[in-house]
């Protein structure tokens, strides 16, 4: 005789169910959903087919309960959920079954994810479209979905965000020559995912702002005073070495010539 002999309630809506199947006793943990679906509200006799259904459902339901916490903590993509599930099971059928259930219940929606992600970056972060696209690709979002959302990231928005970055970088005096400062700002903007042509155009537009933050004349004078010690500037070769060293440090040749 096959039967459920005992049902013991555990923490967090989990239950320990004990079975006696052909004189063999076995116990395993099930979630409340499995208990209800398989009509295990009290000890009773069961068939082999019912036992097979219970063992099949318990693993899926336990895994589903774990993944619900994962998607409830923050919004996830289908790819992220599949990767998380694959750490527990290699059964593609179970993984796809859980993913389909999550999609039907509205927990998974890659298009909505892309929309909300781009909206957040547009409104709050100094980050460009290339970086956003790469991040969404890494999260497994389809290219078409990404491109359809990034249409909102106009050139004007890029200009405004790059301006904010330049303002942030020039808020305090920059202890670098102008060319080095430009190189640093340019590198930072490109790393943050802004288009190179728009970065170049923005830097040119706000050249005066960057130059004012650098105060290159003062920096050049200090560096020149340091390098000229023990140097005969009337000697062409030594004078040329000083010029080259100053240029290597990012000072403009025109400013060096004026100083000399």
Describe the structure.
- With 260 residues, the protein is mainly α.
- It folds into 4 domains: 3-104, Arc Repressor Mutant, subunit A; 110-153, Arc Repressor Mutant, subunit A, CATH 1.10.10; 157-214, no CATH class; 216-259, no CATH class.
- The chain contains 14 helices and 3 strands.
- A 3-stranded antiparallel sheet has the order 1-2-3.
- Strand 1 and strand 2 (14-21) form a beta hairpin.
- Helix 3 packs antiparallel against helix 4.
- It is elongated, with a radius of gyration of 33 Å.
- The protein starts with a strand and ends with a helix.
- The model has no long low-confidence stretch (mean pLDDT 87).
Offer a quick outline of the entry.
The protein is 64% helix and 9% strand. It has helices spanning 32-37, 48-73, 78-86, 92-104, 110-124, 129-138, 143-150, 155-169, 178-191, 196-205, 207-214, 216-227, 236-248, 253-259, and strands at residues 3-9, 14-21, 24-31. Strands 1-2-3 form a three-stranded antiparallel β-sheet.
């Amino acid at each position: 005789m096959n039967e459920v002999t005992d049902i013991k309630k555990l923490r967090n809506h989990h239950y320990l169910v004990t079975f006696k199947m052909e004189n063999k006793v076995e116990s395993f943990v099930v979630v409340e959903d499995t208990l209800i679906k398989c009509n295990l509200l009290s000890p009773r006799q069961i068939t082999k087919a019912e036992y097979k259904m219970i063992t099949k459902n318990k693993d899926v339901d336990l895994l589903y309960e774990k993944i619900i916490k994962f998607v409830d903590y923050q919004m996830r993509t289908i790819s992220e959920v599949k990767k998380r599930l694959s750490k527990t099971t290699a059964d593609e059928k179970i993984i796809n079954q859980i993913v389909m259930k999550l999609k039907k219940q509205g927990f998974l929606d890659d298009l909505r994810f892309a929309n909300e992600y781009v909206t957040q970056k547009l409104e709050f972060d100094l980050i460009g479209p290339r970086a956003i696209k790469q991040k969404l690709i890494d999260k497994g979002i389809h290219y078409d979905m990404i491109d359809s959302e990034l249409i909102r990231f106009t050139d004007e928005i890029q200009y405004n965000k790059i301006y904010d970055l330049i303002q942030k970088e020039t808020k305090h005096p920059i202890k670098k020559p102008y060319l080095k400062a430009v190189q640093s700002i340019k590198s930072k903007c490109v790393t943050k995912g802004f288009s190179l042509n728009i970065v170049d155009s923005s830097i040119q537009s706000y050249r005066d702002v960057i130059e004012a933050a650098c105060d290159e004349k003062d920096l050049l004078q200090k560096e020149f005073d340091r390098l000229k010690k023990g140097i005969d500037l009337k000697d062409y070769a030594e004078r040329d070495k000083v010029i080259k060293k100053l240029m290597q440090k990012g000072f403009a040749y025109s400013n060096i010539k004026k100083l000399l």
